[in-house]
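Batch job 17 of 40 flagged for manual review because the log was empty.
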Amino acid sequence: MSVGLETTNIEFGKRDNLHQQVLAAFPLCDVTEEDLTQNPQFSKLLATLTQHVDKSGLTVPLKSELDKAEQKLQSQKRLWLRSESLHRGLQEMIQDFCVRKRRATLPPDQTMFYGTMETCLRVTQCVRLLDPSSATTQDQPAVLGLTPQQVIQLLPPEKTVQRMKQALPRELEKHLKRKCLSLVSYYQPEWENESEGLKTSKLSHLPPLLDKEKKRAELLKTTCRENTVLLQRQTQLYLSELVKSIQLLQTLILDHRLKVQTDLDRKKLDYFEGKCELVLKKIKTEMVEIQLDTYTADTISAHRKIREMLECELKACYAEKQAVQSKLSSFEILGKAFEALADEYVRLRQEIDMKNWALKKLTQYTEN
């Protein structure tokens, strides 16, 4: 018995360890330890997949190929960033020169240097735009009918270009040094009032600090991602427990409270029905008392006779209205010709009435 019990405990401990390994291997998978316990075959399948799939869901060969492609991409990025940073540094130098030229008069050698560098940059950009890509074999139409050879002819003299190239590393180094010092002042504003030598010495310690902060930011991102996954799991567990509690509460209400509530509602309903009947009877009594106080027996009989007369007249009016409507409907059948005759009849009746009125007035004047 003791041996069987020990074996059971060991298997149970191994199973728990297996579940933890599966959950750790698939952090983005929405699976709980309870799900793995209820589905042991699925748990074994996930444990087998952990040998062939990483945490991101990629297979081992695909992950290695992806890492190689990522390394190649990073090297290409570094080459592009190197050339791009150099190109932007030269453009910034030209912009600074233009600003200083507007504010003060500069020596002729600097004007010649920056003018030559700007011309060389523009010519190089134009040549790059005009030169078709080596990846395409089709002939491309020339922009504005220009060729790279025609644009190259716009370069300054060779001696001027050589002097510019000789002075370029020194000027570029000065420009980059000013940018680095400004970066140091931005990173640590309290170092802005210090000497240039002290800033230069502190500049050598800046890359490790930035690298350290970058690693700290990446660590914080990883921690935040893990906390997000943990929060999602805890939220799911909390919601499941909350649903169970709500179901239990509903069962409690339906089984125990509703019976008492039904009897209470029935008693309240009987009370309100009796109260409503009492109020209606009281209203009828008040109406009868008001009628008795307002009207006598003779007044009520007179009102009844008046009502009967009005109803008879109303019926006669309705009958007359219906007769007129029937006549109008019969006349409407005749159409527009009858409307013209009716208008003519109305006009003649108006003329006859006017002539009768004039004849009457004339007779009165004659008698007088």
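Reviewer: the log was empty due to a logging misconfiguration, but the result itself is present. The mean pLDDT is 78. Unflagging and moving on to job 18.
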